[in-house]
Amino acid sequence: MARRVVSVLTGTPAVMSSEDPVLEANIYAVAEDVDLTILLRGGAIEYAAATGSTPATALAGHPLPDARCTRDLRGLLESGVAVYVDADSAAHQGLSTDGLIPGVHIADARQQSDLLRSAEAVLHW
User: Fold this and answer.
1) Residue 19 needs a FRET pair 20 to 30 A away by CA distance; which of 2, 10, 46, 74 works?
2) How many domains does the chain have?
3) What's the pLDDT tens digit per position in 11-40?
4) What is the CATH number of the domain that holds 40?
5) Angstrom distance (rounded) from CA 39 to CA 62
6) Are strands 58-59 and 62-63 parallel, antiparallel or unpaired?
7) How many angstroms separate the Cα of 84 from the Cα of each of 48, 56, 108?
8) Other beta carbons less than 10 A from residue 125's beta carbon
9) What would you measure as the largest C-alpha separation in the chain, in angstroms?
10) pLDDT tens-digit profile of 28-75?
């Protein structure tokens, strides 16, 4: 079983659920004592935004849950999981380190390459 795993998330967080199945799957890696690193690219960088850039949404007058699932990401960070955001995606969205959840790091192409090369397994969501 691979012990050093990099999980690359590229999709936008789920809109209709307060728990995102992608982040939930990564939570199991922590329980299995896997050295997990998460790399957020593209729309997935929304997981790491410190403040809601998305307005609150309602359906038929009932508020929908926060689509960014920051609670799950914060839990992973507290468990010691390293979380990185793609520098190009962050620049495209106008996010800097100050706009990210504390503990999330911005990684340039070289740093991402190093992360992926050092992994025993790479998951892509």
Assistant:
1) 2
2) 1
3) 876 654 555 566 776 777 766 778 999 999
4) 3.40.1260.10
5) 33
6) antiparallel
7) 9, 26, 9
8) 15
9) 48
10) 776 677 899 999 999 999 889 887 545 556 777 877 665 545 667 888
